[in-house]
Amino acid sequence: MTHTTTGTHLASGKTRPLGAPARLAKWLASERVFRLIPFVLVEGLFIVTILIPFALTIWISMLKWRANRPFETAVFSGLDNYAGVLENEQFWFSVGRTFYFAGVAVALELLIGFFLAMMVTNCTRSKKLYTTIFLVPMMIVPIVVGYNFSMIYIDSGPLNQLLSPFLERFGIDPRIRWLSHPVAAQWAIIIADVWQWTSLTFLIFLSGFAALPRQLINAARVMGASPMQIFFRVQLPLLKPAIAIAVVIRSMEALKMFDPVVLLTFGGPGTSTQTVAYFLWEQVWQFNKFSFGAAASILLLFLFSFLIFAGIFTIIRQRNAIAGGR
Amino acid sequence: MAVASTLTPEQAKARRSRREGRRRILRHVALLAWTGFIVFPIYWMVMTSFKDSGEWVTWPPNWLPREPTLLNYSQIFAFSQLDASQARQATEQSFTIWKGLGDSVLVCTTASLVSLLLGTFLAYSISRFNVGGKYFRHTILTIRMIPPIVIAISILMYYAIIIPYVTSALIGIRISLFDTYIGLILIYTVTTLPFVIWMMLTFIDEVPYTLEHAARMMGASRMTVIWKIVLPLVASGMVVTFLFVFILNWAEFLLALTLTHPDVTTLTVLLNKFQSASEGRLYGPQAAIGTMITIPVVILGMLIQGHLVKGFSFGTIRK
């Protein structure tokens, strides 16, 4: 134990054996070990907080158990919960709805973002101002966006006021409850998502346009290509990586949609705006159906894993394409 | 063509510039329309936050508060129980955002710092030694792409059931991470780590290896090299990454909603509480809280605007 202080004599004390802490420090500082320390730490964190809970979720998904009973009394039930989820049509409806919302919202975001970026690129003096304004929604907390839109859609809100001259001509009471109508409520959520995330697609396309090589476009123009030809034959193919990345990133996020649903509609009216995230939240946190929720989340992850891998693959490929192009 | 041939070059030029001018006006009309669409919801929230309870839902709605009041703000920033001048009949619940603000700041700062620390060192390892294999930097993205609700469900069972069960069996004390700061910080750290690693990788990859090599040749240890050479060079990158991750955590709602109740309350959960208030919705205080949540993030976001997209697009887009 007297040797524990020899760490300080590291340089001079050649003959004396090193103490345990000093040896440990030396071992940790050696290249072979040192490079692995952060890796081991992070992987350990992932195992403790993602992998173990996930394994437990699989176990719980095979129990017959609700949270209102003690955990010890749960009995094993095999794949019953999975069958229950697969037979539950609300689950499938909510999955379909999620894809519908994501599809419409992402398509709109891409289109609007693309045209905005194109227009802003052509601006000279006001470019910076527009960019700054258009980027603000991205920074706003999603839940605040949900709140903002819930204010706008209420029956005595500004939207109805703007529409009222038009509606009163037809004798319709302008105080429409937008969020009580299934289709209008769905669009309300889509519009809120478009409001917030068009800023991201806009920025992706803006940097895409900025990176286009001038010479190529000028060359095409000199050779007599029309603006349409330049756009479709030169610019669009060059923008393909940016488009692919925007599609992947936005659809990944849009499929997780939860915040605007809670803030705007609570999944209603009926179940017309329940996304899959909201459906699972309700099953687990409102109805305490833990093992059902566990089974459903495993299935959901399985369903999404193809998308996740496709997404990562696209990101790798397009990233290399961009890196290679420079 | 026949028309064009009769034009002098000056006329053709004038016509072209006229067409160009018309196109420019159209462009500005479209861009201004979108600007209006962007600004309007924010404007409405800020205006509502200055309205008194009678004006929240009047018909027709007022675009400017008729009698601007700071009552909503004084309610949410009140330190003690509301006195008679501030209490409203319909709103006798605790308003103050101090608890939410404190919890949000504590959880977000700690989680962002821990994940910045771990992520930076791992990014260094990946960048210099290819730790974890060639594709590790990509596979780490899977964590970010798992739907949060799936994480929330498994973490809920882990925190609320399994850990107390196991600890009471092993050491006789029930330890639950559900509704604790540590539990929330832990899960925030894990969910933001992929972002940190990605952003720090783009910064560290840019530090020339020759610099480090020279220092190593002169006998500096690996730790000295990191401390004296790499970290100073990526310091601004670390600040940007920290702010980005902080914004992400600040905006997080699903995990905070599902993994805490009632002790730990972040600001987003607090805002949602007013949404489902049984006495009717409290639009005014909600608007005030919304404004207060928004201001710091927008300011931080403006500071790191160019890097924001780097983070959101996993470094695929460079500005």
Quick structural gist:
The complex is a heterodimer of chains A (326) and B (319). Chain A has 326 residues and is an all-alpha fold. Chain A has helices at 20-29, 31-34, 37-60, 80-87, 89-122, 127-139, 142-153, 158-169, 182-210, 214-222, 227-238, 240-254, 259-264, 276-286, 290-325, and strands at 63-64, 75-76.
Can you describe what's shown?
The complex is a heterodimer of chains A (326) and B (319). Chain A contains 15 helices and two strands. With 326 residues, chain A is mostly helical. Chain A folds into two domains: 2-76, no CATH class; 82-325, MetI-like (MetI-like fold, Orthogonal Bundle), CATH 1.10.3720.10. A two-stranded antiparallel ribbon of chain A has the order 1-2. In chain A, helix 5 (89-122) packs across helix 9, helix 7 (142-153) crosses helix 9 and helix 9 (182-210) runs antiparallel to helix 12. Residues 1-14 of chain A have low confidence and may be disordered. With 319 residues, chain B is mostly helical. Chain B has two domains: 2-49; 98-312, MetI-like fold (Orthogonal Bundle), CATH 1.10.3720.10. Chain B has 14 helices and no strands. Chain B has helices at residues 2-6, 9-49, 71-76, 98-129, 136-139, 141-145, 148-170, 181-204, 209-217, 222-251, 254-259, 267-275, 283-303, 305-312. Chain B is flat. The model of chain B has no long low-confidence stretch (mean pLDDT 82). At the A-B interface, helix 3, helix 5, helix 6, helix 7 and helix 8 of A face helix 2, helix 4, helix 6, helix 7 and helix 8 of B.
